[in-house]
User: Which sequence fits this backbone?
């Protein structure tokens, strides 16, 4: 089975940096994804990590440590539009299923 | 670019009724998925398919059935609807390749009363 843990909620200030953590225990591992989901909408892809290290994409970066079963999503220069739920998802060892964590609701305040 | 299309977008069902949520994708993706998302929760995998004619159970398959007769279509059938099936349902698809992300449909809001 797979277990994915994320903080339930976080609050940060516009212009600041925030780090959203994700820990996972899985029977197999074939990559970790981060998605952003605004209320009432479908999730949209943010990042993918399969090897250890940092992947940077504009204001968003994602880090993975496979030995620790740990990832984080780093959001820089926060904007009000970044207020959303951030979902961590792990692909199983066979590469077929993508299992999601419960998501972290990020509130950006001015 | 249609992508992943789900219908209907909203539906109210009475307890015990049955219905089918339709999902079609025009990207020639071989993998397709059905997820449900309860309020304030993450997505739970109901069923998935790795290609036409092949389906498999996810985390929460009870009360649902699927079929995959073509690459494009992956309908989700609810038999004997129950209030516990009130949720938002997302269909998704992706192409082969571990790094390929999945693309979601816009969601179907289902209420069982």
Assistant:
């Amino acid at each position: 089975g797979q277990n994915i843990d994320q903080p339930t909620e976080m609050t940060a200030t516009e212009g600041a940096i925030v780090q959203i953590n994700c820990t996972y225990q899985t029977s197999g591992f074939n990559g970790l994804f981060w998605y952003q989901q605004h209320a009432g909408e479908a999730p949209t892809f943010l990042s993918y990590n399969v090897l250890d290290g940092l992947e940077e994409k504009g204001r968003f970066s994602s880090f993975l440590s496979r030995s620790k079963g740990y990832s984080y999503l780093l959001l820089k220069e926060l904007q009000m539009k970044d207020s959303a739920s951030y979902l961590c998802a792990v692909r199983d060892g066979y590469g077929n299923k993508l299992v999601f964590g419960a998501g972290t609701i990020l509130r950006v305040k001015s | 670019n249609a992508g992943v299309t789900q219908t209907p977008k909203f539906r109210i069902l009475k307890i015990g009724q049955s219905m089918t949520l339709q999902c079609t994708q025009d990207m020639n993706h071989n993998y397709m998925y059905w997820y449900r998302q309860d309020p304030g929760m993450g997505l739970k995998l109901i069923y998935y398919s790795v290609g036409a004619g092949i389906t498999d159970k996810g985390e929460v398959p009870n009360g649902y059935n699927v079929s995959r007769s073509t690459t494009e279509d992956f309908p989700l059938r609810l038999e004997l609807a129950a209030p516990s099936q009130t949720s938002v349902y997302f269909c998704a698809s992706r192409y082969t390749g571990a790094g390929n992300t999945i693309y979601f449909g816009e969601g179907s809001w289902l209420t069982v009363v």
Summary: The CA atoms of residues 51 and 99 of chain B lie 18 Å apart.
